[in-house]
Amino acid sequence: MIRFSLIATTLTLAVSAVEAQQSATLPDGPGREIVSVACTQCHSLTPIVQLRMGEQGWRQAVENMVLRGAQVGPDEIDIVSSYLADKFGPGVPFTNQNSVEVHLKNGPGANLVEGTCGLCHGLDRTIDVKRPPEQWPAIVHRMVEIGTPLDDDQINQVIGYLQANYAPNQ
Ligand code: HEC
Ligand code: HEC
Asked: What is the Cα–Cα distance from 145 to 140, expressed in whole angstroms?
């Protein structure tokens, strides 16, 4: 008797661990049902759960997908965008992502880049490609638009830092 119930318990635990892993892909919350149906018609959830953006960034992505044919009604865009920003927003940790250690060059603004530019993707993505100085403002403003927490003064510091340290031939 005892032995049987132990086996049964072990099996139940194993099954619920698998279930937990699968449902972990999309955490509970208002909007989850819409996302799980409307956002899996053309691709898996992978491109979604691997991305991090604020509300504005997700809204743009959702509107872009609606133009391609995603079945999200006009009155559902709010709830879907807030669900995605809440569950896959800046700073929400990634699972199974190899993190590359990055040593930024010293200089004013380095701490801001370190603190904010790794919240949605690896810091390596920020500085992998050296860019002509005139390209950095547009990139940084785009990152702020989709959810990087920087005020105007900090934006200028970050742009100055990247222009000074991560331009070609440096
Ligand atoms: C009608 C087909 C279709 C549906 C439905 C759809 N997508 Fe997409 N999605 C695409 C295509 C095609 C791409 C690849 C092209 C691209 O990256 O612009 C894509 C790419 C993406 C990407 C990756 C973009 C990047 O820059 O890496 C995200 C995120 C995404 N979709 C989110 C969503 C969300 C959220 C939903 C549900 C609201 C959704 N998709 C529903 C067609 C669709
Ligand atoms: C709120 C999430 C978020 C934060 C925080 C963030 N990024 Fe991004 N970043 C993205 C996304 C999403 C993409 C890819 C889609 C896009 O380019 O819109 C991206 C792409 C990039 C790219 C590649 C762009 C290209 O055109 O090749 C660079 C460079 C970059 N980010 C730099 C930065 C820098 C610098 C910071 C800090 C100031 C930063 N990111 C902070 C979300 C973020």
From this structure: 9
